[in-house]
TrEMBL record:
Organism encoding this protein: Glossina brevipalpis
Keywords associated with the record: Ribonucleoprotein, Ribosomal protein
Name used for this protein in its record: Small ribosomal subunit protein uS10 domain-containing protein
InterPro entries in the cross-refs: Ribosomal_mL48, Ribosomal_uS10_dom, Ribosomal_uS10_dom_sf
Domain of life: Eukaryota
Residues annotated as domain Small ribosomal subunit protein uS10: 58-153
Amino acid sequence: MLRKFTSLLQRTAKQPSISYLCNTRNISDSKTLFVSDLYEPDYLESLKPKFPQIENLNIQIKGYDYPILESYQRYLHKVAEYLDIDVADCYALPPQHMTVQRLRPNSAAIDAEYRLTIYERNFHFEDVDAPIYPLFLRIAQAALPEGVELSIQEHTEECEERRYVPDRDLLELKAELERIQSGIAKKK
C-alpha cells in the first residue's frame, strides 16, 4: 500500500503548477515588468518633450525711436509664434527720460542740450526647446534695427517687479500711517 502511495506522490510532483496552466506570471520573478509601469498609461511617455527646454527667458529690447521699436517687437512676436515658442507675456515699461548736454570745447558753457526718451519692451518666453533657441537668436540679431538694443536674460522676480509702477498717493498714505503709528507707540 505504501508503494502505491509513493508512486502517486511522484506523479503529482511531475505535473505542472496551476499558475502555469492559467498563463499567469509571478511579478516578483519578472525583471521586465515594474510596479510603477504597471498602472501608468503609455501615452504619458509621449507627452514628455523630445529636447531639453529652457524654462523662463526674458527678452528685453530698448530703443530711442518708438515706431521702430514697436515694429521690431511685432516682428519678434511673429517669429516666436512661427517657431512654436510659448510667449507667456509681452509688456511695455514706462519710458525713461534723459537730458544730455554738449559742452563747448575747453569750457563749461553748454553748446546744446538734448532730451532723449528710451522706450523698453519685454517678452517672457516659457519652455523654449534648446535647438530652437539659437535659431531664434540668430533671426533676432539679423533683423535688429539700428539704434535698438537687444538683451536676453533668465526671467526673475526683479523682472516681474519692474513692470509695476508704484502709486505715489498710496506710498504717501502708507508713510503717513507709519508716522501716526509710531507717534501712538511713543505715547504708550
